[in-house]
Amino acid sequence: MRKIILIVLAMLLVAVPAFAQMSEKTIADIVVESAGAETPEFATLLAAVSAADPAVLEALSNPESELTVFAPTDAAFAALAEALGEEAFNGVLADQAALTNILLFHVTAGKVMSADVVAALEANEGAFAVPSLQGQYIDITSDDMGVYINGAALNLEMVDIEASNGVIHVIESVILPESRTIADIVVESAGAETPEFSTLLAAVSAADPAVLETLSNAEAELTVFAPTDAAFAALAEALGEEAFNGVLADQAALTNILLYHVVPSVVRSGDLSALLEEHMSMSEEPLMVDTALDGAQVAFMVAEDGSVKINDATIVITDIDAANGVIHVIDAVILPPSE
Hints:
Blueprint: H1 2-14, H2 27-35, H3 43-51, H4 54-61, E1 67-72, H5 74-84, H6 86-94, H7 96-104, E2 107-109, H8 114-123, E3 127-131, E4 137-142, E5 147-149, E6 152-153, E7 161-163, E8 166-171, H9 182-190, H10 198-206, H11 209-216, E9 222-227, H12 229-239, H13 241-249, H14 251-259, E10 262-263, H15 269-280, E11 287-290, E12 297-302, E13 308-310, E14 313-322, E15 325-330
Parallel strand pairs: 1-8, 9-15
Antiparallel strand pairs: 1-2, 3-4, 4-5, 5-6, 7-8, 9-10, 11-12, 12-13, 13-14, 14-15
Helix pairs in contact: 1-8, 2-3, 5-6, 9-10, 12-13
C-alpha cells in the first residue's frame, strides 16, 4: 500500500511544473521577493531570517552554496504563535540564538529534489532522516495522506522551487529542534507507559551527582550509549542479584560504569559510519574512541550481520537527538576494564 502511495506522490510531484524551472535568484532572493508579493508567503520567514544570526542570511544568499530549505509559510508561523502564545512567540523572535537554531533546523546541505525524497522514502520503507545545518536530524516520513518533514506536511503544490544555490520546498508547519536535554529524555522515557530507561535513571540518580549535572547541561556536547532496562536485567542475571545490587550501591563504581557509556562529543550514526569505514580501510583492529571516563576507551566494530557494536553491545536504535547531544540505544551494559 505504501509503495502505491509513493508512486502516486511521485506523479503528483512531477506534475508541478510551475516551480520546476531553474532560477538565477538565490534562496534569499526568492524569500525576499515572495515576502513582498501581493499575496506574500514568506513575510514572517524573512523577518525571522533578518532577526537571526547574520550567518543565516549569508548562507541563503551565497551563490556558491547548495542547500535545501524547508520553508514554513506565514500561516505556519501564525499557527506556531497561536500554539505558543503571543508572548512566548515574540520571545523566540527576540532570542537570536534560539531563532538561529530553529531556522538552521529547516535547512540541509545539498540539493534534495522531490524526486530524491520519494526515492529515499521508497527505499527506506517510508521513513529516513537527513542532518540539518543546526546539527540535529530532520525526520522525513510518509503515510496515506502525504509526506511529512519532522511532522510538518509538505505542500505538494509548492515543491522544487529551484534557486541558483539550491531548492525550496514549502511546509505547512514550523519544525522545532529538540529542546530536551539527554537527562530530560531519560527521565521521560523512564516514566513512559512502556519504560525503556528506568534502571538507567535509577543508576544515574545513585551515581555521583556530577553525572546527572553533565547530562542535564544544555551547553554540553555528548553522545550517550544508553542501555535498556532489558540490558540491565541481563547484567543482573550475569552477575547475580547480590553482586548487581552491590554495584548499584557502590557510587564510585557506578559512576565509572555510567561515564564509560558517554563520549564527550556528538557522534551521530552517519559520523560513526564514516569513521568506521575510514578506519577499516586501514586496519582490521576495532576503532577505539575516548569516553568521559578518564583513560578508558570503547571499541567500535561492524559485526558480520552489518550491525555496529560497541564493545560487546549492539547499537539497536540510533540518533535520538537531544539539545546537548545524541543518544544511541544499546542492548547490553558495557563495563570499563577495571570493573
